[in-house]
Amino acid sequence: ASSTLLEPEEQQTLQIAMATMAKRISEQPGGDIIDELFANVVEMKSLEDLPDNAPSIYEGLTVAEARDQIQKEIETRNSTLDDGVDIFSVGIENPELLDQYLDRARLIGDFEALVWLKEKIEKEKQN
User: Coil, helix or strand for 62?
Assistant: First the structure.
């Protein structure tokens, strides 16, 4: 007996719907890091049992290629977060820079704003 309550075709339809929802969440401008991480987890889960060579909902990518792309996004995000920035210290040392970061976070999302802030801090250190 199968451990799933859904027929294989229904399971695949559900997985495609999950991936589509997660893709929409991850592509929303101004999203926060938690939304992006959640979306990546759902995307990976939705691709879990699909054949590697099957087409995915990601334009021009097979399921295996989509999994690889999502995994790279997760690793990039984790690497950036691991090299974190002390936002509190930035606010004390440079309130104007903190304001710029917060504006960017609202416009383009937490992660992209954090990448921008880290690059800005690194450039200031070099000068």
Answer: strand
With pLDDT > 70 as the criterion, what percentage of the chain qualifies?
Answer: 94
79-110 burial: b if 16+ Cβ within 10 Å, else e: ebeeeebeeeebeeeeeeebeebeebbeeebb
For residue 53, is pLDDT > 90? yes
Please write down the long-range contacts of 100-106, taking CB distance under 8 Å and 24 or more positions apart.
Answer: 105/30, 105/32, 106/30
CB-CB contact of 30 with 109 (8 Å): yes
Question: Is the separation of the CB atoms in 24 and 57 below 8 Å?
Answer: no
> Which DSSP symbol is given to 55?
B
State pTM to two decimals: 0.64
Q: Residue 62's beta-bridge partner residues?
A: 55
Structure tokens belonging to residue 112: 């992209």
pLDDT tens, position by position, 18-37? 888 888 887 776 667 777 77
The predicted structure's pLDDT at residue 45:
86
